[in-house]
Write a structure and sequence with these properties.
Strand content: 15-25%
Structural class: alpha/beta
Keywords: Transferase
CATH superfamily of the largest domain: Crotonobetainyl-coa:carnitine coa-transferase, domain 1
Order of helices and strands: EHEEEHEHEHEHHEHHEEHHHHHEHHEEHH
Number of strands: 13
Protein name: Acetyl-CoA:oxalate CoA-transferase
Organism: Paraburkholderia nemoris
Pfam family, one: CoA_transf_3
EC number: 2.8.3.19
Radius of gyration: 25 Å
Helix content: 25-40%
Oligomer: single chain
Length: 410
């Protein structure tokens, strides 16, 4: 039943994607109210269902067969199994597309053309269809046919060249970010593109094909670092936790660990110096302005390090907060979810689950006053909604669905 308190309650989405980037976009659309049907391979489903441990456990402590990885990107969807290699399965997708608004897929370039499930084929059935293709390298160019994975793209797209300790330090070398950030960012860009295409459709009456590539997104996400290179002509180097354009903006040792200082302007720097007991640093022409601090970074950071080790992290954080200096600890995830602010924002939530009883999830960070995010369905078990979707979208009877089951189509 349509709930008009949800922003996208009038949208139907077929999510043919798997792993993370495509499913992330599908989950975001689903959180915003869209009816998202996740189309999966019979028997195996999304690759990430098997990407464990850890596994969600049932009430008796037995594995439910759903990995934590899969759970992170498939909330609010309905799962239907269809074998698209089977002609009857292809026909089933075409029937579903007639009433769909959006298709999300992340097959290799032209991977769906052999089944006549590519954009050209499906848009001839439904000219209003918004068809979003997510690939590693895009639909064009010499690398278009290559498979792309987040780790690979983090390396090829430059992110790892600026992530890690500088050469000459212990532990030096390129590092990937600790989460598949390229996939997540690609999912976000894909969602923006889908919503933009839908807005355009409201004016023109026609859908369109969206080409989103992990490599393109990774490069776009380099933001100021890419701009630093394009304007300055020098490729940025790895700087550990330091910032290329702002000082001090990094981690500093304390008496019991580390803290982060994120000074964004000269006024904050003066306050920072006062807390450290060295107000004279802010008056020194070598450090009074940010460009001067960047130039004399090595000397200033060494001085700060000698002071910050004198007090524990919590004490520094408290003092800096009073002074209006951005400062915080480096939390492990148990501390993240125990943080009072994180709790107040409800970033950890639970949903009822048919196998496990309840499943813990990270909440959607979007807060909307009139059409808030809703949590209607936990991440589905494989094929959980096959009968339901075929009946509600296509008005198929049980006998017809059962016949498809016997053929191995669903």
């Amino acid at each position: 039943m349509t709930n008009f308190n949800e922003a996208l309650s009038d949208l139907r989405v077929l999510d043919l994607s798997r792993v993370l980037a495509g499913p992330w976009a599908g989950q975001l659309l689903a959180d915003l109210g869209a009816d998202v049907v996740k189309v999966e391979r019979p028997d195996t489903g999304d690759d990430t269902r098997a990407w464990g441990p850890p596994w969600l456990e049932d009430a008796d402590g037995r594995s439910s067969g759903q990995s934590a990885y899969y759970l992170s990107a498939n909330r609010n969807k309905r799962s239907i199994t269809i074998d698209i290699a089977h002609p009857e399965g292809q026909q089933l997708i075409r029937r579903l597309v007639k009433d769909a608004d959006v298709v999300i897929e992340n097959f290799k370039v032209d991977g769906l053309r052999q089944y006549q499930l590519d954009y050209e084929s499906l848009s001839s059935i439904n000219p209003r269809l918004v068809y979003c293709s997510v690939t590693g390298f895009g639909q064009t160019g010499p690398s278009a046919a290559r498979a792309g994975y987040d780790f690979l793209i983090q390396g090829m797209g430059g992110l790892m060249s600026i992530t890690g300790r500088p050469d000459g330090e212990d532990g030096a070398g390129p590092l990937k970010v600790g989460v598949a950030l390229t996939d997540v960012m690609t999912g976000l860009y894909a969602t923006v593109a889908v919503l933009s295409a839908l807005a355009a459709r409201n004016r023109t009456g026609r859908g369109q094909h969206i080409d989103v590539a992990l490599l393109d997104v990774q490069i776009a996400s380099l933001a100021n670092q890419a701009s630093n290179y394009l304007v300055g002509g020098t490729a940025p180097a790895r700087m550990g936790n330091a910032h290329p354009n702002i000082v001090p903006y990094q981690d500093f040792p304390t008496a019991d660990g580390y803290m982060i200082i994120a000074v964004g302007n000269d006024r904050q720097f003066a306050s920072f110096c006062n807390v450290l007991g060295h107000s004279e640093w802010a008056e020194d022409q070598c450090f009074a302005t940010n460009p001067a601090r960047v130039k004399n970074r090595t000397r200033l950071v060494a001085w700060i390090n000698r002071v910050t080790v004198e007090r524990p992290t919590a004490e520094w954080v408290s003092l800096m907060e009073i002074a209006g200096v951005p400062c915080g600890p480096i939390n492990t995830l148990d501390r993240v979810f125990d943080d009072p602010q994180v709790k107040a924002r409800g970033m950890r939530m639970e949903m009822a689950h048919s196998v496990a009883g309840a499943v813990p999830l990270v909440a959607n960070p979007i807060r909307m006053s009139e059409t808030p995010v809703s949590y209607r369905r936990p991440p589905p078990t494989l094929g959980e909604h096959t009968f339901e979707v075929l009946q509600s979208w296509l008005s198929m009877g049980e006998e017809e669905i059962q016949a498809l089951c016997e053929l191995g189509v669903v």
